[in-house]
Amino acid sequence: MAKYGFVVAGTHSGCGKTTVSLGLMAYFAERGYSVQAFKVGPDFIDPGLHRLITGRNSFNLDGWMLTKEYNVNLFKWASHNSDVAIVEGVMGMYDGFDGKTEDGSTAQIAKWADIPVLLVVDARSMARSVAALIHGFVSFDSRIKWAGVVFNRVGSEKHFEYLRDALSVLPYDLPVLGWLPAEREVTLPERHLGLITAEESGIDMAWKTKIASLMERFVDVKLLLEKSKIVDSLNAFKNPFDTGATLPKSSTIAIPRDAAFCFYYEDNLLMLKNAGAKVVEFSPIKGEIPPDDTDAIYIGGGYPELHGEILSENQSFLRFLRERARSSTPIYAECGGLMFLSQYIKTTDGELWPMAGILPFGVRMLKRRRALGYSKVRFIKDCLLGPSGTVVKGHEFHYSDLYNCENDVELVFEVSKGESGDTRLEGFRLGSVLASYIHQHWGSNPEIAVNFLRNAAKNGEEGQS
Fold first, then answer.
1. Angle of helix 205-218 versus helix 17-30 axis, rounded to 10
2. For 167-213, what is the HEC assignment?
3. Cβ neighbours of residue 179 under 8 Å, at least 6 residues apart?
4. Residue 8 to residue 17: CA distance in whole angstroms
5. What does the alpha-carbon distance between residue 317 and residue 190 come to, in Å, rounded to a whole number?
6. Are residues 169 and 261 in the same domain?
7. DSSP string covering 201-264, please?
8. Residues 2-45: pLDDT tens digits?
9. Nearest 10 degrees: CA dihedral of 406, 411, 417, 423?
């Protein structure tokens, strides 16, 4: 188990959680610590940035999509051979699935993992009122352990001293671990779906050194470690990716992975590998195609609209997909993958990029967000991911919708969203192709990975007969 572990939480979105998280990861990594990163919530962008800094895959912890047992085992499994476990929170510390419960919140994960919280407070334009703000966070849930507080966007050292003095009136000792100035040189750019992806971030050694030096200069990292020691009782855990299934044949699963297709839950891929699959990654942007022995294809989400011209020029991959769709190779696609399997992507600038042309509709990009939120998916028909009645949880976030959708494609999912319980039909099936806007997390139902591999193995056997 890691020797140290803590959660980086914030008072609200945009307060500086990611900057502090990446800074601390960079600081420890530069000093020889092995760092295991996690992200609370269904986000794909931050885990990719974590990987750039730590050199290790980052994992999502989520109290709505995943059970407590799964989250705890994942935290222990991933961090057992690291020195420091750092969990980046989501939104405000107590924000989650709804306003009545803690499901999906950073606070929930902090309690489940049994590690303390480092609270990041955006102190810009604040003075003594910061004490009232922090007191509210500390007193809201007495079960939370606290490592301390870091003030972000502080105007000067004198401003910091004012903020620190304000906390002296609190009826408990909350360590003030430091502060960060408004530092534009380490600010990460954003686009419509959040931050720039890891593949395009521009994070290099100079950036890592810069942000690590900020932590060394302004944050009491030694005290943070003292407050974040992990007890030995957390050592026991189970492999969260062990589905328990024994498959008769090892299948080759092709995964496009680059700046266009970079949104995958690592859990999903590890479940495939743990069940015996050979997972082969390739880059369509670089003109690569899957190997000839591919038994199934899993196309994740990303930003295909930003790489439409390059993707449309990779005719070898487009032909490969069309031929495999005609020969009934299982093809599963999520969000950006769905867009890539469509007839075309129409950008907000009016450009039209031809795509694989397998699904009978086009996709148009919108200037406003089309969907955001957790989703529960129930299969209403048998499909390559499982039989009718199967339930899996996931997340949806996109700025596009379908255009000129024809009627010769089956809908095999019933999707319910949020507290309202409103449902809609989704999950577009055409032959052996299944596509959806939902990013499924198979940790919520490991049988999904097993079902996918069984169909891949069946396809491989038929291809050899």
1. 100
2. HHHCCCCCCEEEEEECCHHHCCCEECCEECCHHHCCCCHHHHHHHHH
3. 123, 150, 151, 152, 154, 160, 163, 218, 219
4. 6
5. 30
6. no
7. S---HHHHHHHHHHHHHHB-HHHHHHTTBPPGGG-----TT------SS--EEEEE-SSSEEE-
8. 899 999 999 999 999 999 999 999 999 999 999 999 999 999 99
9. 90
Whether 356 contacts 318, CB under 8 Å: yes
Token reading at 340: 């890539």
Query: Residue 338: which H helix or E strand, with range?
Result: helix 336-341
Residue with the bigger pLDDT between 147 and 199: it is 147
Q: Which residue bears the tokens 């705890």?
A: 72
Structural domain boundaries, residue 196: 4-234
For 369, residues 6+ apart whose C-beta sits below 8 A from its C-beta are: 192, 397, 398, 399
pLDDT of 191 over the 50 cut: no
For residue 244, tell me if it sits in a domain. no
Whether 15 is a known active-site residue: answer: no
* Crossing angle (nearest 10°) for helices 157-166 and 129-140: 50
User: Which residue, chain included where needed, has tokens 């999509």?
Assistant: 65
Look up tokens 């891929």; give the residue: 269
Q: Is residue 43 part of a domain?
A: yes
Token digits of residue 217 = 């200069």
- Check if the beta carbon of residue 78 is closer than 8 Å to that of residue 59: yes
Phi-psi region of 237 (alpha: psi -120 to 50; beta: other; left: phi over 0): beta
Is the residue at 246 inside a domain?
Answer: no
The whole-model pTM stands at 0.94
Question: Max Cα separation, the chain?
Answer: 78
Residue 231, pLDDT score:
75
The residue among 278, 211, 246 whose CA lies nearest residue 30 is 211
Who's near 393: CB < 8 A, 6+ residues apart? 64, 65, 66, 374, 375, 376, 377, 440, 441, 444, 445
15, 262, 335, 383: which is the annotated catalytic residue? 335
Residue 271 in domain: yes
Structure tokens at 59: 């994992």
List the CATH number of the domain containing 36: 3.40.50.300
pLDDT at position 408 is 75
Measured distance CA(329)–CA(457) in Å, rounded: 10
257 and 374 in a single domain? The answer is: yes
Answer yes or no: is pLDDT of 331 > 60: yes
